[in-house]
Inverse folding.
């Protein structure tokens, strides 16, 4: 074989090998390569126990899906639309995000509908769906739990009040909420949506409460003993209520046993007060419960992964003050709202 023929054969072999390699790629590999190209990765994973490998794969990192917001919150995954909704609180707006279209303004105003201008954090915070698929909002500025009176695919800033007061006094600013299987609504009411925060002269309730709105419209106070109740979620069997406390002096997650009358046996699930500081931005905030019963709870540094007994097995370190998180439908992805960003990480 002459030299020219040899190099021609070498080229053909190399070309065929290359084609074979591309053909042998799985769809999953192609999707991951596309995501890595499209969405820059950030942060890191803090492993504290081998159990973390049950949820986070080796080498996984958060990916930035969208940015340029003021303070993102309340992520909600709409499975039938492959769409994420989330609040941007200071500009009083809700945005949507999809793989195809990226970020889009979805709804405004979202949390404050009065004519008089105001400062602070007036927009919606937590977002969720009721059993009929209606969008339910924690509205800071209007100081109420409300329902959007428009279809999800044709949003309009028209709202019906679900609850706005307790014993004749207006709420502070409902922050986060969750429904149980019976349709009862559990929500927290810290002062963050008031312009003057806890010292605002418009504050009518002297404490920061955790409440339940029954299906008959009754508002029941579950506890007034938390200084800054924030994120809230139920265990899969709905026997335990988890509530985050976003107080730098008492940065804890509480667990309560649910009863027909309310809650009992309140105890500290995990205390992160010693972790609060400049190197780990953020406080206990939003949380979601995985089908396994483990908590994915935003706190100092990112998203804590806690067992139902309160063991901290690891943290998704985002590098940002991280406000909340939400799973997709099959819990293979976790979306995170973190300061000016929206992020995502794969879950096993």
């Amino acid at each position: 074989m002459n030299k020219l023929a040899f190099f021609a054969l070498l080229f053909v072999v190399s070309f065929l090998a290359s084609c074979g390699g591309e053909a042998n790629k799985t769809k999953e590999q192609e999707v991951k390569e596309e995501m890595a190209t499209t969405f820059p990765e950030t942060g890191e994973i803090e492993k504290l126990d081998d159990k973390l490998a049950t949820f986070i794969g080796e080498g996984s990192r958060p990916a930035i899906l969208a940015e340029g917001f003021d303070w993102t919150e309340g992520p909600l995954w709409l499975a039938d639309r492959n769409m994420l909704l989330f609040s941007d609180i200071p500009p009083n707006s809700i945005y949507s995000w999809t793989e195809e279209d990226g970020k889009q303004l979805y709804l405004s105003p979202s949390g404050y509908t009065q004519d008089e201008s105001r400062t602070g954090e007036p927009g919606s915070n937590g977002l969720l769906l009721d059993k009929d698929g209606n969008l339910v909002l924690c509205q800071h500025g209007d100081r109420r739990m409300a329902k959007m009176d428009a279809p999800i695919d044709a949003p309009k800033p028209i709202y019906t009040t679900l609850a706005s007061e307790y014993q004749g006094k207006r709420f502070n600013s409902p922050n986060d909420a969750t429904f149980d299987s019976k349709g009862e609504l559990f929500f927290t009411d810290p002062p963050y949506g008031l312009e003057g925060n806890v010292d605002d002269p418009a504050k009518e309730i002297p404490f920061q409460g955790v409440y339940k709105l029954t299906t008959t419209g009754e508002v029941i106070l579950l506890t007034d003993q938390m200084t800054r109740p924030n994120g809230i979620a139920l265990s899969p069997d709905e026997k335990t209520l988890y509530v985050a406390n976003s107080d730098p002096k008492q940065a804890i997650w509480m667990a309560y046993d649910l009863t027909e009358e309310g809650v009992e046996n309140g105890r500290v699930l995990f205390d992160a007060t010693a972790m609060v500081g400049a190197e780990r931005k953020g406080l206990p905030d939003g949380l979601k419960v995985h089908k396994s019963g483990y908590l994915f709870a935003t706190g100092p540094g990112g998203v804590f992964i806690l067992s139902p007994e309160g063991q901290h097995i690891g943290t998704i370190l985002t590098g940002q003050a991280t406000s909340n998180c939400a799973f997709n439908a099959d819990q293979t992805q976790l979306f995170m709202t973190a300061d000016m960003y929206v992020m995502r990480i794969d879950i096993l």
Remarks:
- Residues 3-23 form the longest helix (21 residues).
